[in-house]
Structures are given as C-alpha cells and as structure tokens.
Amino acid sequence: MVRGSSSAKLTEWRERLERFGKSGSTVKQFCSEESVSVASFYDWRRKLATEPSGGDRERRIPAENASRVFTPIVVNPPATPVSIRLPDGVRIEVPSDHLAAVRTVICELVRAAQVPDKGTIPC
Questions:
Q1: CA 66, 68, 74: angle at the middle one, nearest 5?
Q2: What is the pLDDT of residues 36-67, one digit of tens each?
Q3: Shortest CA distance to 44 belongs to which of 75, 71, 20, 67?
Q4: Are 94 and 82 a contacting pair, CB within 8 Å?
Q5: How far is C-alpha 65 from the chain's CA centre?
Q6: d(CA 73, CA 11)
Q7: Hey, where are the domains in the chain?
Q8: Nearest CA-CA partner of 49 in 92, 78, 20, 85
C-alpha cells in the first residue's frame, strides 16, 4: 500500500484517476477542473500504478501505458536451403522449410538415376 496516505485519500485519488481515464481531457484541463496540481496528479498516478494489487508483489501497469499491450511474436531464422550437388557439378538448392519440395527433388533425382532393368524405387 502507498505509505503515509490515508485510506480516504487513496480512494479519492483512485476515483479521480478513474474519472480522468474516462474524461478525454488533457491532464492540465482535468487538474484545473478538479482543483488539484498537475504535479500531484502525476505523483498519485505513479504511486497508485506501482502499488501492489491484492497483496501480491506484482506491479500494476502504469496508467499512461494501460492501453499498450505486448503482443508475443515469433522470429524464425531464415531457412537454410538444402543444397544437392550432382556428379556433373550442377547444384540444386531447395528451401529447407518446404519439405515437400525437398522430397520432390530427391524423388526426381532417384527416378532419373534408375537403371531400366533394375526396377523402380518407390518415393
């Protein structure tokens, strides 16, 4: 809890900050309407934003950041291509993240290398 503050004052400032959030006014306009200083407004907003909630030690999101939400993202490194070098020096590169393409290239290479008398190798 915020040290050195009465329960009534805490309630008053919580309600005031809630009204501000709904007001659409600038801080300066709102403080003038409420007859409080801008410095007191920011001081109380900071105090209440960092006040532990419900006895736990987590900090609440400061009011100025309340509308910001972290969106998790996944960064995948670029796929390293599968490189196939043929005996005649030809090199084939296939993106490794497209397994179907890798499988197709390998099957076609196997089919092309098959000897007609030996039968077929299934892919």
A1: 140
A2: 999 999 999 998 887 765 544 444 555 555 55
A3: 20
A4: yes
A5: 15
A6: 38
A7: 7-65, 81-118
A8: 20
